[in-house]
Amino acid sequence: MLVTSVEGDRVNVFKTAGGEPIGYMAWMSLTPESVRYVKDYRALPPYSYEWSEGRLMMIFDVVIAPGWSKVVFDQMAQRLSAQKVVSYFKRGRLKFLDRKLLGKYLANKSIY
After folding, report:
1. CB-based contacts of 103, cutoff 8 Å, min separation 6
2. How far is CA 96 from the centre of its chain?
């Protein structure tokens, strides 16, 4: 899964001020049909081409080095600020955040 996102330039690596990697976020760009699939089957789309067909950003993986969550969430908020809606897949469920709630959500560090 991660390879598909890396190849499609749908991975953001978060770094310290010195350039050391401290985490990453990987996502898919889904169509409404693929979003329905995720919602109905509680599973990610099975075919890699479905991961880059649409415009809805769905985060499926976030990794943060211990002790760096504040820095990563600040960088994540900057990266996601241009999105109208962001979805994410957590514990087998699809969840949505609009632009208004995104900043508050990341400030509370409640993704993971």
Report:
1. 77, 81
2. 11
Sign of the torsion angle spanned by Cα atoms 6, 2, 86, 12: negative
Closest CA to 78 of 111, 94, 102: 102
Q: Does pTM surpass 0.85?
A: no
How far, in Å, are 2, 5, 14, 22, 108 from residue 9 at the CA level? 11, 6, 14, 18, 27
Residue pointed to by tokens 């508050």? 104
For residue 6, give every residue at least 6 positions away whose Cβ sits within 8 Å of its Cβ, in sequence order, or none. 26
pLDDT tens sequence across 79-92: 888 888 888 877 77
DSSP state letter for 48? G
Residue found by looking up tokens 């820095």 in the block: 71
H or E segment to which residue 40 belongs: helix 32-41
Q: What is the pLDDT of residues 39-77, one digit of tens each?
A: 898 888 888 889 889 988 989 889 999 999 989 988 988
